[in-house]
Known about the structure:
Chain A is α+β, with helices and mostly antiparallel strands. Chain A contains 8 helices and 20 strands. Chain B has 2 domains: 7-57, no CATH class; 79-306, MetI-like (MetI-like fold, Orthogonal Bundle), CATH 1.10.3720.
Amino acid sequence: MAGLSLHALHKTYGKVEVIKGVDLTIEDGEFVVFVGPSGCGKSTLLRMIAGLEDITGGELYIGDKLCNDVEPRDRSIAMVFQSYALYPHMTVYDNVGFGLKLAKTPKDVRDQKIREAARILKMEHLLDRKPGQLSGGQRQRVAIGRAIVRKPEVFLFDEPLSNLDAALRVDTRMEIAKLHADLGATMVYVTHDQVEAMTLADKIVVLDAGVVQQVGSPIELYQRPTNLFVAGFIGSPKMNFVEVTVEAVDADSITVTSKDVASLRVPARTEGVDVNSLLTLGIRPHDLLPANSGAIVGRVSLVERLGNETIVNIELASGAPWLAVLDGDQALRVGESLALAAEPAKAILLDKDGKALLAPLK
Amino acid sequence: MTEHPSSVPDARQRAKKAPPARKSRKARLTAWLFITPAFLAYAAFVLVPLGMSVYYSFLRWDGIGEARFHGLTNYITVLTDPKLLQIIGNAFQLVLYFTIIPVGLGLAVASAIRGQMNGRFGMATRTILFLPQVIPLVAAGIAWSWMFASTGLINQALKSVGLSSWAKGWLGDFVWALPAVGVIGAWVLLGLCTMLLVTGITKIDTSLYEAARLDGARPWHEFRYITLPGLRQEIGVCVTVTVIAALASFDIVYISTQGGPGITTTVPGLEIYRLAFAHRQVGLASALAIVLMVLVLLSIAPVQWFTRDKK
């Protein structure tokens, strides 16, 4: 197994720069997820690692080997495609063993490896079928089997679950997590689904417009986003934002207020923050609680009662739409006024450039 | 009121519904009505002439006078006459040129321009290769006759590179006339095959090629394991069309060599025409036509079987 190292990686198509200098280190055996909105460059970055896209600038190391100009077949990687990319005229057995056949692996060794992969993925009964005779989940399993049978140094997954239905996606996600635990291999996984990212990753790389926005563990990204993009992208439903004015600045906290928010003291980095300057306050929908004396007051515009929780859309005095996810079943009515409280430690403040003023960790 | 009000319309609807047998009879009748115009045209232009040809093939008839029943004599003549057997053999030799060259080159071109399909190079290649298809066969035949002539372009080219001893009247040469006709047919059919194969290759998922590259495939492996199986049905169509074009060829041969020298380039299509309209042996011509039809069917049946959709 091997880690990966990306130094100032660039990719341009003509004059369009899609990857703008990515620096990243992926440790041996780590499960790293590239996440970001459509068109952010995450799949392009993965394909550059695979060797399916040329690298315009920078360096890519797989293990200790500089791989910029190395053919895909010589990179010791395997990739699982969104479309599965199974050879339609071959049986599952031949699909899984194709790479071994090209590598001129002796037939008996090949057979043993194919059957071992089939056993791990519980698809022994599918070996004689062709891809057209398989369900989406089974095809995905075959695609994974084709990857693991070659024992590559690095596994790459390009949105492998996006063609599966919701239930199957959960099952396959668990299987991939188990596979990583069993194989201990380095895995790089691309998705736009943050639930997949949060549940699978050791480390998440958030990308936007070809730039790495933040790298960190799922909880770190959720609790301590470093900028407005990450704060808004990570977490579902997404974080609520509202513009606030600085009322007071202490050594380790900032008190803010606005038309929508009564005075709220938020732990934050205070350097360079002046009284009366404008900041953005961010609070996650799950961190809001109904409280008669709450700092945030709005009018209920929509109530979604799910039984175990209630999702409430509220409109603040400024007209800003906010969302609150309240525990249990809350019998709220559209149009009524709702006061919400937030735990200050879970709120974040962002400066005018969108950088989070995170309080130092204690 | 004992009956539920809502059940009344249902009951009426049920009463109005036709019984299944009557409904299926009506559906069959409708289907036949739709089929009839096409069937009548097919019968008038294919089935009736075919039936008449079969009938004529058992006759000794000059096409004008009284016909006499001749039994299987015409068929025996077709299958035993050395001249007619050579003519049938010529058609099968043309298959090698009409089929292998266009399909082989078409596959090579399709594979080569796969990556640049939508670029200028791909568009230009497709257009250039398809051009022969829009040129009338008669014009193509005449143009190639000039090029193969003693003072034609081919010989001029050979002389210019010091191969004067190779120069000859290609279409009048007993050895080279049939290959020369084959080259003309290959040139004409190359465009059609290339178009079909290039269109087919665009339907192959590009991620298959990428997966193969990651699996360790080299260009030959990609061609062998992805392109060829992916184009199986298009190859089937190309082979079928070109085999029929070779076995039933007439126009190219008629324009370029008229079957000569001797009968070295005579093909069944040309011989049927001669027997029927020059030698007034309508029965023998019909028998040769029926044998040709059977040979065409026997030749393309395995192609269809091999290239059928096996999903």
